[in-house]
C-alpha cells in the first residue's frame, strides 16, 4: 500500500485522529491501542523500520503533559509515518513498550525514559542509558534547568577521594543562542547577558 | 676529547670515564625523555591526539610514542575530550591505577573547563577530580599545541625535586615509627 494516506488508515483503525504535520503523514493514537496499531502498520502497511522514539513535555501545567512520538519508515514505499501518543497519567507517565515488535525501540525507549521519565511498560530492561543509574532527575523535562542541579557524585568512594560533586554548570550569561538572521557576527551563538563577555559596543 | 656539553663540565683527560652531576638531574632527565602517555581519549580531541601520534607530527621525537592503554604501564594521562560526570568516575579510577610519579595533561577546552558543554551532564574541568599539570587551550588544540604542552610538561618534570620526593615518604614513615616507639 504505497499510498497509505490518513483515510486508508482511518478505515482500519477507527481510533486514529489526524495530526498537523509539515512533512509526513502524522496521526494521534491513544496509548492503549499503540501496540496493536504499530503491529498492524508493520505487518500490513509496510512500515517496518522504527527510526526514532522520543517524547514531548508540554510543561507542568498542561494535561496531557507528555506525548510519546514515534517515526516509522516503510523501506518498501519510502514513506514515513509519525505516531503521537499522549500519556494518560501526567505525574507518572507511561506508554506501552514497542521493544517486542521493533527491537530498535529498546535503546530509544531507554533514552526517552532517562531524559523524560516516561516508563515503557513491558520493556525488557528499562534502565537509564545516558545518565548514571542513581541520577534522581529527568533532564529534558521542562522544569529541569540546563545548568543542572547539585546531586552526589556517581561513585561515593571517588567522591570522597577526589572531593568531587555534581554541581550546576556556570552559565555565564548563557545559554548561547543564535538569532535567525543577520550578519555572520550577529548570528553566531552568543549569551544574552553580555556582562560576562564582550559588550556590544566594545566589539 | 673536549666535551660539547658545558653543563656537565666533562673532560675525559681530567675526570676519566666519570660524569659528575646531581641525582635530581639524572632522574628527571630519564623521566622526561621517557614519558609513557595514557590516551584518555573521550571525544573529538582524541582525533588530534591520534594525529600527534602519527608520522606527520610524530610525538616520538620527544620520546613519548609509547602510548599505553593500560594505566599500570603509563605515567602521563592525556585527557583529550569531554568528561561527563558518568565518565568522571572512570577517569579518576584509572588515574589512581597509574603508578607514581604521574602527570596529567588536560587537552582542549572540554577537559580544561567543560568547554562549550555548560550543562548538567558535563564535568566542568577535569581538574575537579585529578590534579592537572598542563592545560592546553583550543577546540580542538592543534597537534603542535599538544606537543608544546608535552614539552612544557618535560620542563616541569625537569624542575621536580625527585630525590626528595622519593625519600620523603620513607622519611615520614621512619619518623612515624620513631614517634610510635617513644610513645
Ligand atoms: S575541546 Fe572541542 S574538540 Fe576537544 S573534545 Fe571538546 S568539543 Fe571536542
Can you walk me through this structure?
With 203 residues, chain A is of the alpha/beta class. Chain A has helices at residues 6-12, 34-44, 105-116, 156-162, 184-187, and strands at residues 17-18, 25-28, 49-57, 66-74, 79-86, 94-96, 119-121, 176-177, 190-191. Chain A is globular and about 60 Å long. Chain B is α/β, with parallel strands linked by helices. In chain B, 43% of the residues lie in helices and 10% in strands. Chain B has helices at residues 12-15, 23-32, 45-53, 85-97, 108-113, 143-158, 162-182; strands at residues 37-41, 76-80, 103-107, 134-136. A 4-stranded parallel beta sheet of chain B has the order 1-2-3-4. In chain B, helix 2 (23-32) packs antiparallel against helix 6 and helix 3 packs across helix 6. Chain B is flat. The termini of chain B are far apart. Bound molecules: iron/sulfur cluster (SF4). Iron/sulfur cluster (SF4) binds at residues 43-45, 81-82, 108-110, 115, 139-140 of chain B.
List the defining traits of the structure above:
heterodimer, A: 203 residues, Beta Polymerase, domain 2, 5-stranded mixed sheet, two-stranded parallel sheet, 5 helices, B: 183 residues, alpha/beta, flat, binds iron/sulfur cluster
Structural class of chain A: alpha/beta
What would you report as the Rg of chain B, rounded to the nearest angstrom? Answer: 20 Å
DSSP, total strands of chain A: 9
Distance between the termini of chain B: 60 Å
How are the strands of the biggest sheet of chain A laid out side by side?
Answer: 1-2-5-4-3
Roughly what fraction of the amino acids of chain A lie in strands? 15-25%
User: Biggest sheet of chain A: strands, sense, closure?
Assistant: 5 strands, mixed
- How many strand units of chain B? 4
Percent range of helical residues of chain A:
10-25%
> How big a fraction of the residues of chain B is strand?
5-15%
Contiguous low-pLDDT stretches of chain B (5 residues minimum) are: none
Model regions low in confidence, pLDDT < 50 over at least 5 residues of chain A:
none
Say which CATH homologous superfamily of the domain at 2-130 in chain A is assigned: NADH:ubiquinone oxidoreductase Nqo5 subunit
CATH architecture of the domain at 2-130 in chain A: 2-Layer Sandwich
Mean pLDDT over all positions of chain B: 87
What is the H/E order of chain B? Answer: HHEHEHEHEHH
What is the general shape of chain B? Answer: flat
Query: Which pair has the most extensive contact?
Result: A-B, 27 and 20 residues
Structural class estimated from helices and strands of chain B? alpha/beta
Assembly context of the chains: heterodimer
* Helix coverage percent of chain B: 40-55%
